[in-house]
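debug: dumping io for the single-chain case to check the tokenizer round-trip. Nothing else runs in this session.
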Amino acid sequence: MNNPQQPREYDAVLGGNSPSLEGAAVLGGIEGVKLRLQNPDAKVKIAALEQALNYGEQGLDLVIAGLKDESWDIQNAAYLLLKSRTEEKISQVLIESDAHLRIGCTNDYTCLCNYLAQAKWEEADKETRRVMLVVAKREMENSLEVEDIDNFPCEDLRTIDQLWVKYSNGRFGFSVQKRIYQEFIENGYEYGSKDIWEAFGDKIGWTYETWTTGEKCWSCSGTSDITSPKGKLPCCPCWSYDRDHYLVEIGEYGSWDAKWTYLVVLVLFLRMETCRL
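debug: decoded output
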């Protein structure tokens, strides 16, 4: 029977082929893997995770622990090593840790996941916009173009949406907004019309009347919590947190910002159709 504490042919043993002195350190077996996992070099740690799978349950537990590492690279490496395994234990671990949602994509969603898990909805909304800019490589421009939305990676869009839906118990998420918009169409509203945008904005809490003129404007500002209208969050990714309010007049002949918002939201919904969300 193999002893997991003893080095095997793939282990690194201090001193190479030379006989080791009694009591000398042997960098092999499961203890050697644990030692390499303490190395600050991410490449060394990732190699150790790969090697850990050679040591049965003990090694598997080390890879599972990698899902909680401070480094996203280590988390991602652990996830990739585990996702193809069929053990029920692994499937449950991946679900409980949200690893199947927040990692394995082009970006790290750990921060978004943490905000949502703590019900910090406004912080999560800001983080959603930030990560979308990162994925689209538009951080410097600090804005998303229609082309960016139309080509947004499906896996990342799915991850963002599923995290919102999960932690809000189905109250928030892009797919929730899309479903509300579709319900208006099913109830006879004309696709893309002024009436449907006004009804949609009212329904999800994106509209209000200015106290000076009484004109209806779009805004996602103000306090947002779990009691906010269904579908309010995330806010439209074309809106910015650089200003205090998103005062956008609603209407077919309204401001340029209003028309731009309509366009971005429609393109987002179309992209979700393509991604089957």
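debug: round-trip ok. Confidence is low (pLDDT under 50) at residues 13-26, 242-253.
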